[in-house]
Each structure stands twice: as structure tokens, then as C-alpha cells.
Amino acid sequence: MPHLLIVDDDEDILSLLTDFFRKHSHEVSIAENGAAMFEVLEDHAVDLVILDVMLQKEDGFSLCRKLRSTSRVPVIMLTAVTDFTDRVVGLEVGADDYVTKPFDQRELLARVKAVLRRTAASDGTEVGGGSRPMLHFDDWRLDVARRELRSSNDTLVVLSSSEFDLLLAFVEHPKRVLTRDQLLDLARGPSHEAYDRSIDTLVSRLRYKLEDDPKAPSLIRTVRNGGYIFMPRVVSR
Questions:
Q1: Domain that includes residue 160, residue range
Q2: Is 182 among the domain residues?
Q3: Please, are residues 2 and 47 in contact by the beta-carbon 8 Å criterion?
Q4: Distance CA 134, CA 119 (A)
Q5: Averaged pLDDT, 76-102
Q6: Residue 80 contacts by C-beta under 8 Å, 6 or more apart in sequence?
Q7: How many domains does one find in the chain?
Q8: What is the DSSP letter of 227?
Q9: What are the residues whose beta carbons fall under 8 Å from the beta carbon of 178, sequence distance 6 or more?
Q10: H/E segment holding residue 157
Q11: Which residues, in sequence order, are bridge partners of residue 6?
């Protein structure tokens, strides 16, 4: 039973979503602010956070940024703003998806299931059996089973689930030009409704974490009018 943490300062929304997700076989914890959110995360194993942007004391963008610095737990943001910029900001601070208010509960449930599927897709086994390998490139090690990225000195680099999925798509298709649509399909699934800019945002975040100089990238290069290409040689061990 997946454990969801819903963070919102609207009691009606908390009550509505709690009842809805419990009816659909989810365990639910709630929090009305950031302090309560981190208390729940410290005391419980949470599989996904549904985080409202417009909180009174500290907004969801700030909380997502703090959370992402220490945790890989997936985050879906709720926003009452339809502005494209807000969606991009959410991705930039580490959110995995977003839903605009007012929303259909069934759509939110579908988004939750999709993010949880992506998170669980690399849990250590491939379809048909067999353990997933450790993938090495440049000075990095990608542990597919544990969904972890480590540097040459074994330092853990925290990635959101979306960042990990995109990096895995690159690592599994090195030295090939991949269009944004192909990357969307590989990282998020062909049925996911997204937009090209979301891939650009995720690539920028990966470059910031991987590249010595993100402004002059050597690992993930842009192909004009084409997409992106992952340059390093990848070794599976």
C-alpha cells in the first residue's frame, strides 16, 4: 500500500484527498506546513509527496528545494496558477510532476500511479528476470537497483526520480542523438502528457550536477535542431 504525504493548508482539500486516496488503497499522512511535512518524513517511510505551492508560511517551491537536497522521494506539486513559468520553476526545484487546481481527483490519482511506476521501474529487476547492472561512465557510477548516482569518491548525488529516469535514458542510449520526444517516451512513458521544455529543464539540472562546467557541457551535448547526445562511454558491471 503506497504511503502518500499530502501537504496543504486547506482543510477541505486535505479531507477530500485523504478520503479519496484511502478509498483507492493508499496510506495517507497529512501536513499543513513545512515543519509538519519534515516531521512526517522523519518518522515515516513516505513513497510520494503531494505538495501545494501556495502555502502560507513557506511556499511549496522552497520546501521542494529543501526536500530535494536530502531526499529522492517523488514530489507532485499542486498549483492554482496555470502560468507556464510556474510549471518550469517546479521542475527546476526538483518536482517530478504538477497538477493544476481545480483538478479532477482521478487525474491526480493517475499522475500518482505514473510517478510511482517510474520510481519502481528500476527496483532491481528487469522484465523477464535478471538483476540490473551497475553502470559506469566518466567518473560516475549509476546504481540502477538502488536508483543512486555516486561520484568517483563515492559521494552520493541526490537526484529526483525524474532526473534519475532521464539520466538512465541517456546512459542506456549513449552516443545516440535523442530527440526531446524520444527522451520523454524513454524517461516518462509514451502516455505521459508533457512538453519539450520539461526535458530542457531536466537536462539543465543534470548538467549542473554532473558537469564540471554546466555552461560548456561535455557529457550531455545539445544537437542543434536534433535534441541531445550522451557522450561518455558506458560500461556495465
A1: 134-236
A2: yes
A3: yes
A4: 17
A5: 76
A6: 53, 54, 100, 101
A7: 2
A8: E
A9: 169, 170, 186, 227, 228, 229, 230
A10: strand 156-157
A11: 30, 50
**Helices and strands (DSSP H and E) totals, the chain:** 8, 13
Q: What is the pTM of this model?
A: 0.60
Instruction: Output the nine-digit C-alpha cell for 12.
Output: 477541505
Q: What is the dihedral of CA 211, 214, 217, 220, to 10 degrees?
A: 70
Place of cell 501556495: 54
**Sign of torsion, CA 61 62 66 67?**
negative
Sign of the Cα torsion 82, 86, 92, 98 reads negative
The residue whose grid cell reads 557529457 is 219
Query: What pLDDT, in 10s, does the model give residues 109-133?
Result: 998 988 888 777 544 433 333 345 6
Q: Who's near 59: CB < 8 A, 6+ residues apart?
A: 53
- Distance, CA of 144 to CA of 125 (rounded, Å): 9
Place of cell 549513449: 174
Task: Write down the pLDDT at residue 92.
Answer: 73
Chain Cα centroid distance, residue 111: 12
The Cβ of residue 38 has, within 10 Å, a number of other Cβ atoms equal to 17
Indicate the residue type of 114: A
Q: Cβ atoms within 10 A of the Cβ of 69, count? A: 9
Q: What cell was used for 138?
A: 566518466
Single residue among 73, 97, 120 that ends a domain in this structure: 120
* Per-residue cell: 131: 538483476
- The CATH code of the domain that includes 225 is 1.10.10.10
Residue 170 and residue 230 in contact, taking contact as beta carbons nearer than 8 Å: yes
